[in-house]
Amino acid sequence: MRYRSIFQALEHIKRSLPLILLLRKPDLSFSFAVKQQADCVGGSEKDSEITPLEQTMADNNGGKNGLLLYYNQFSFYSQKVVMALYEKNLPFETRDIELTGEQYKPWFLQINPKGEVPVLQDTGKIIPDSSRIIDYLEDNFSNGDTPRLIPIDQGPEVRQKINHFRDLIDTINGNVLTIGSMIHPELATGSKKVPFIAPVRKQLVNADKNSADNLRKYAQENPDAKEMLLEKAENQEKKREKLLNKDEFLKICQQAEKVLDEVEAELSQHTNGKQNWWLCSDKFTIPDISLTILLLRINQIGMEPFFWTDGKRPNIEKYFNRVQERDSYKKTVPGTFSLIKTIFKNQAPLILGVSIAAAIALIVGGWFVVRKIMRK
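^ Ganglioside-induced differentiation-associated protein 1, sequence as received from the core. Prediction below:
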């Protein structure tokens, strides 16, 4: 019995380690990226002609020209921009923003007064909002090896269809679906994927519950952004009140179903040589990015049985399986290894401590086993 207890304890350590690592960070929320320290650098007398915003932008990009994306790798709207950048074969740098308060730090509010990601910095230009960023990339980087995401050689009908489906799909708020699925877990019966494992879902629900109060706290700390942050706090309270009502959340889901019904109908028409088409064309376009990231999020939060599996929307299911083979998808979606790697970087001292404890337990357990064998 003594040896069995030792092995059971070792097995418990093995099973508990991932959870211990996740729960150690008390404010774990949307962000799993390692925080890169950011200092809001003010101008000195000798460089007073440089504004604080210009100095911050220069520091964040190391003084280099090029595209710098302020984002979070697990953010719904950030992923749209990342996928667009990869689709257009554009080189870019990233700056991870922890969505546990870093977006409301004074230095970031200088860059985006709304305190939201993603934000694109193109040398001296700042472009917020995922839709605006994608439009900027399309308008300014569409030549040579940089393909268009809105083809100009396929006629006005295709362009009209692209604009229609882009606007249609973008009416679905992925963050609302995410939090709603966690408040009403009986509607999310599918398996949950990284990063939305159990402890993370719990943290997200708590973060949403406390979000309005936290926004009011940040408003007091940032007088220049006080009005905007107080407005966000009020909107957050209204959104949460709506999400807590299951009937209201079901209405949101039903609206998403109407959108996906139209997408399903369009995909069902891809016959007679169009089997390899994407949503609107044989080219991968902007609404394909919106659709891909939406389907990804639905899959991650376990709501795919609600929306498309078991023959409910077979063309959407086929589309999602196909798009996962696309190179831009693989580069955009952080997997389990990415999560483990960032947690390891954040929690190296704890991992070392737990590893030592586990090693000691293994040595002690092994010693008891050896003694038992030698006594026989």
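The first strand starts at residue 67 and ends at 71.
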